[in-house]
Amino acid sequence: MKLFRRIRHKLILDNKKVQYLKYALGEIVLVVIGILIALQINNWNESRKGDIALKEYLVKIKSNTLEDIIELDSLTIGRRQIAELCKKARTSILDKTEDENTMLFMSSGWAFIDLYFNPSIDGYEALKNSNYYGKINNTALDSLLTRYHTIIGEIALNEKSYNEYSESQEAYLSTQFDRSLILAYAFLPPDSLNIRATSQTEYFTDFKEYTSFPAFRNVISLAAWQFDTMIHRYNELKNVGLSIIKEIDTIIED
User: Is the pTM of this model over 0.85?
Assistant: First the structure.
């Protein structure tokens, strides 16, 4: 800067206006170039910070997706086991062999249990509410995330419909039937039941009467086919989740 000032001072003293104007113009150009370089460096730093922040969000989404996949696998196993029991019970109803399959019907009562998929979505919601979601707009990851959360909503509606129906049928059964013997037989230890005045035959008779109600059989029949639909959606969501993890790994590794 001292050198520039000396040059300007000398040009003014020598009354070299043309040369001074050229010099001044050159100095302005240098200043503008310096500003542009500074802005470019600043933009690069901001972009780099944005990329780091985005990757942190994506790591969280990947962790959430892995948690979801573990839960989906567990739900799939549970629903498949219950569905198989209900299919066998439905066949027994059609074959009129209920009296021979009391334990089967007792096991198929698991169709009344409430099972819900509880997705981990905090990472995705945090990214959507941040300033960095735009970095993945119109990308493959954006499409996968949209599809993933659309399926989550569809699964929630499916589960809600089934669970509310089974709850309503169970509530109806509770108004029509005393389930004290069934619950005792299901939850009390055998040695505790053996010292009671009620015989095992009475427990079974009570249970057969309970399972003969249409409300019970409606739930069993519904679970026999609808659980397969739920399992299909779980698998669909899992596959999209695996694609999301693969896409995130590609972005993080860049």
Answer: no
